[in-house]
Amino acid sequence: MLILGEKYKFTTLETDILKNKFYNLQTILYGCKKVDEVILQIEKVCETEKFTLILLNTKEKVDDKLISFLTNIRYKHKNIKLISIENFLETYLQKCYIPEDNNDLHYLDDIQGYSKFQYFQKRIIDFFGIFWLFLFSFPVLLKSRKKIIEESPKGDIFFKQKRVGFQNREFECIKFRSMHIDTDFFNHYTQDDDPRIFPWGDKMRKRRYDELPQMWNILKGDMHLIGPRAEWNELVVDYEKNLPYYNERHLVAPGITGWAQVNYPYGFNMKDTKQKLMYDLYYIKYWSLWLEIKIVWKTAMVVFHKKGI
């Protein structure tokens, strides 16, 4: 794959994924070079390397001469396909591109909430899933209660916090407490080896056990089994200041697990938040029963230590 420009910079995780899909990745910068130089460089690498994809990843205004060259290159090299960064991310990485500026607002129209029939399907999945989840997780619920009392006796078993849900409505989310009660729960981001988290709390977070009490929120209708992560209301205010399109994810109710949760690790900063938002928007845009099944499977792999993220 030949990448033209650096409009979107791939994460280390994404680069590793792409290396498994394409044996050769090369980038040609555009904007800091003359158009004839760029054309010559593209022509040269296409003659020497067997590229099948040219990724249009430039944020600079593209010269007419380069557009003409790219239009005709597919006739000379019949195996080459042109693809924009927006379509590439959705096709190969299952996430939606979020622009760096506000010149293109088409994503506001692309992302829509569930139809009535889709919502009906979601609630069937919720009740069916909770029945089996409770049945199989009951021993874990009992063990978690016991371990929390042993390792952090000061404080309640459960941790309740205001979260933002469907259509920006706040609700009280319930989780197993994973931090000591006399620490700052309201620090924006957890860190690796966070001293606030006790040992069993750390294991619960890694295996998603701390989310299990949210089954009650699902029964109440505050959440779905699967959806974007329910974020603390204070954080949402901060996120929206930095990511003005953040509230697009609230077109649907949050979930215990979701596409972002199984594809991206816990976020430590605003950059991570933006990456997870890209996955959330993809989930909303392309919701299907098949995608629900994929998320359930990937969640199971995380829980049973078959795959970590």
Overview of this protein structure:
With 309 residues, this protein is α/β, with parallel strands linked by helices. The protein has two domains: 92 residues; 188 residues, no CATH class. The chain is 47% helix and 12% strand. The protein contains twelve helices and nine strands. The strands form three sheets. The chain has a four-stranded parallel β-sheet with strand order 2-1-3-4. Strands 6-5-8 form a three-stranded antiparallel β-sheet. A two-stranded parallel sheet has the order 7-9. Strand 1, helix 1 and strand 2 form a beta-alpha-beta unit. Helix 2 packs parallel to helix 3 and helix 6 runs antiparallel to helix 7. The chain is elongated and about 70 Å long. It starts with a strand and ends in a 6-residue tail after the last helix. The model has no long low-confidence stretch (mean pLDDT 88).
Please tally the β strands and state the result.
9
Report how far the terminal alpha carbons are from each other: 25 Å
Which strands sit side by side, in order, in the main sheet? 2-1-3-4
Mean pLDDT: 88
Low-confidence stretches: none
- Estimate nothing, just give the exact number of structural domains: 2
Radius of gyration from the alpha-carbon trace, in angstroms:
23 Å
Shape: elongated
**Count the helices. How many?**
12
- Strand share of the residues? 5-15%
Order of helices and strands: EHEHEHEHHHEEHHEEHEHHH
- Secondary structure class reads alpha/beta
Largest sheet: 4 strands, parallel
The residue fraction in helices comes out at 40-55%
